[in-house]
From TrEMBL, chain B:
GO terms for biological process: D-alanine transmembrane transport; L-alanine transport; L-isoleucine import across plasma membrane. CDD domains: TM_PBP1_LivH_like. This is Branched-chain amino acid ABC transporter permease. GO terms for molecular function: L-isoleucine transmembrane transporter activity; L-leucine transmembrane transporter activity; L-phenylalanine transmembrane transporter activity; L-valine transmembrane transporter activity. Belongs to the binding-protein-dependent transport system permease family. LivHM subfamily. InterPro entries: ABC_transp_permease, BCAA_transport_permease. It holds the Pfam family BPD_transp_2. Keywords: Amino-acid transport, Cell inner membrane, Cell membrane, Membrane, Transmembrane, Transmembrane helix, Transport. It is a multi-pass membrane protein. One of its GO terms (cellular component) is plasma membrane. It comes from the Bacteria. PANTHER family: BRANCHED-CHAIN AMINO ACID TRANSPORT SYSTEM PERMEASE PROTEIN LIVH, HIGH-AFFINITY BRANCHED-CHAIN AMINO ACID TRANSPORT SYSTEM PERMEASE PROTEIN LIVH. It comes from Pedococcus bigeumensis.
From TrEMBL, chain C:
One of its GO terms (cellular component) is plasma membrane. This is Branched-chain amino acid ABC transporter permease. CDD domains: TM_PBP1_LivM_like (cd06581). It is found in: Cell membrane. It is a multi-pass membrane protein. Keywords: Cell membrane, Membrane, Transmembrane, Transmembrane helix. The chain crosses the membrane at residues 21-40, 52-73, 80-98, 104-124, 136-156, 208-225, 258-277, 289-320, 332-351. The keyword Lipid biosynthesis does not apply. GO terms for molecular function: branched-chain amino acid transmembrane transporter activity. It comes from the Bacteria.
Amino acid sequence: MPDTTPDKTPEPAKGKVEDSTPTAGPRVDDEATERAEAVDTTPDTSVDISVPEVAALPKGKLLEVDDVTLRFGGVTALDGVSFHINTGEILGLIGPNGAGKTTCFNVMTGVYQPTSGGVKFMGEPLGKRKKFQITKLGIARTFQNIRLFHNMTALENVLVGADAHHSTGMGSALLRLPKHHAEESEGEDRAYELLKFMGLDKRANELARNLPYGDQRRLEIARALATNPKLLCLDEPAAGFNPAEKARLMELIQTIRDQGYTVLLIEHDMKLVMGVTDRIVVLEFGKKIAEGLPAEIQDNPAVIAAYLGVDEDAS
Amino acid sequence: MDFSLLFNHFWEFTITGLAFGAIYALIALGYTLVYGVLRLINFAHSEVFMWGGFAAVWVLLAFGASQASGLGIVGLLVVAFATAMAASALVALGLEFVAYRPLRKRNSPPLIALISAIGASYTLSETMGLRDKPFKLLGIDNKMVDYVGRPREASPFGLNIETKRLFHVFDYQVSNKDLIVLGSAIVMMILLDQFMQRSRLGRGIRAVAQDPESAAMMGVNRDRVIRLTFVIGGAMAGAAAVMYLLKVEQIRYNSGFLLGVKAFTAAVLGGIGNLRGALLGGFILGVAENYGQAIFGGQWKDVVAFTLLVVILLFRPTGLLGESLGKARA
Amino acid sequence: MNAVSSFFHGIGDRFRGLPRWARIVLMVAAVVFVYFLPILNPPLITTTDSDFGAVLFTCAMYALVAIGLNIVIGYAGLLDLGYIGFFAIGAYTVGVLGSQHAKLPLLLCIPAAMVVTLISGVILGAPTLRVRGDYLAIVTLGFGEIVRLILINAGGLTNGNRGISNIPTPPGVDLFEIPKIRWEGLTAFVDLDNTTTFLKFGVTDSVPYYWLALTLVGVVLFLDWRMQNSRVGRAWEATREDEDAAELMGVPTFRFKLLAFATGAAIGGLSGALFATKQQFINPDNFTILYSVLFVAMVVVGGQGNRWGVILAAALLTWAPEKFRFLSDARFLLFGLALMALAIFRPQGLLPPRRSVRASKADAETEVLEEGVARA
């Protein structure tokens, strides 16, 4: 599985920031490249990152969005949206900009309460659960605009994610009870495992804000995975990547699925999701306009109409 | 707890409460304007108020006109208002230049701006508290004793206008001072409202408060707008200082502190960043603490004020009218 | 000013590079030196206009305050402008239980003070930590003032403006006398007339109180370190960095903020209790709101989030006004000017946490690179 793509360069993580710097005097440019390439950040997808509780999930509907409507004042952001996600699949949630994809995420993760309708996770309504409770229940996410803890190291970022299934409190921490030690070492092992998987293990002790753009994107995924999510929601994880980088990331996401995770992927680039997703849901103006296998979606006239003119900037 | 006092003197407590409320409201405008534009608690605003008050006292002293009657009152008030407003505006402008602008240029985090504000507050009030020192060095402190003598004590006088009872509101005889304070406060508020609504500069302030980046792209000069908010806020604090001098009849180097905290409370109460909120908050605070004083006794006045703030924030975390300088008008 | 932090961080790096035995020896030597400061009376450091032992006690007490407030501001990012309120509650708990209404021994009063402040921290925090940061500042400012006003007005409980006297002292033993050192120029004399009795908590001699406070600083530092290097510390930091993201990563942010607030309050209560037992007399004037501002200044001047930095700042801001007493009147003016200068020229504080030093270094590098690119 790993390292099979022919166009794989030694530095896949070069992000938008570096790419957009104008080609300049060779000396300085060399230095910059050297700094970025000082360590190898190729993801090592052979690392086993699966967790038993996630792998043991029964097949079937994992999450059901049931007739969700969300209004802000007079604006209807989501209008009777229904779909479901099956365990072990990659579901693509696509649509033009402003279609309500991220809003839909926000309803699923407890940021917004739907005006009507509801979300069921493993057969149980999410109800008025708080954001952190939903995360503990097993839904983790990344953000469209990277929201790492910038002044913490890469390792610490992932540890915060791993802490979601820990329970060390003030008492255990102050008295250094066995629980503290056990959870700290479990968390660290898990974090290194995920960082290695993402190719970030050599950057573990760098501050998140000092990582190149691409590394930050993958660190966010690592942090979300550390919570042992039954459902991993990725909000445009490839935003700002060039096509080659996007392709590599999609491959990585498939590997994550192959290790037993269920993935919900937001992306507005339709071509990109065609290859990786098992099923696709299309939103436009807060309404679901299509749902089905990638091949069906591709030929759906409503989807084509929705995407006319958007295709350009999406690629 | 004793409600009979409040029932028996209801209008007295209401009207004096409104008068103090007007002072809080005018100071609160300064906090709210600066907060709206800069998202900064201008902790030193209370000292701007205090400096304006002293400036008025000094100028009246220089004119030898601390007391007046008849038409002289009008002249006295005009001079006092003009001096205090100009002085406070100047101090506010200087404050912005020395304490805040350098930080803005460096994009400092908000907490650092607050530290600078606290430092500026100490500096301004202590400078007033030490004002005799330079004159002592020059050896002319004896000549200036009226101005700089006993700098840690209260000023020799405020605006001493003989209190005259003019007319009844139910059982309370409204005094000329109440009328002057409330009347001039209302005039100030209407002027500010018109300015914010009609003038180009007022629109600029609202634009920057709403969306600094778009405003900049539309050609609004942010630095100029910021200077302007400090000037306006300062002038309002200066006007409040004159009213304070009328009601309290003295001012000290540290008079600003508690008043500033209360005015800020008023601003938060109404929804900080919202001009009408600041006015509403000021009046509510003034009246509420006066009622509280009547019910629980004078020593609990300040406790009532702060408790009110906590309670309101619990139920309406963004204040009574919500926070938006962009949408709100004075 | 940059020299300050690179000096201290330089020391830190050297220290970490030493072999284990050398580190232990150095550490013990430093601790002994700090304990013996009031005996040694080192020239330049010692204060001539006021009792050096008392100044050192105040330094240690405020160091405790700074460590506690650092948890609230530095770790959890909550701006608490009413910390003096907790300090006052701690002091008055000792006063009320130890003298005014009961005669409990001090060793019971101190834990009681911490429990009472912890509870008041929860009572104040539970409703207010849900509101936004700026509001928290003003609400806590109000709280600090309310506490003082209640102390004045609830005369039945607190004896009002007259204050509480005869506050119990810690139990002590008279073991032996330690003569202090007197300096004339650079020659040291053992001053047999000026001694401190080992562990006699009396009225005149502040040195035993200093030792007590210093010991507590050590204990609290140790616990502080344990908290920060655990799930709790990480949760605080994540919350400070990005509250929403932290919540979505499974951190119950409100609970952790409340924990930080209450822990900080309890430490404030502990230092207040120390104050009460040292002074043996307290009244509401000891707890004006200006102290809250001073406490926040300690944390920010020291470098939010760095426990050594805030201790250094606490000691400095306490010691300097005593050392330069001849400036008397102008002290607060200079304090104000210093705060402004600090905000403008050294916003990260005297001794910022190592991570932000690292970060700003990396930023500077990037800047140099970018400038290079722009120029080429």
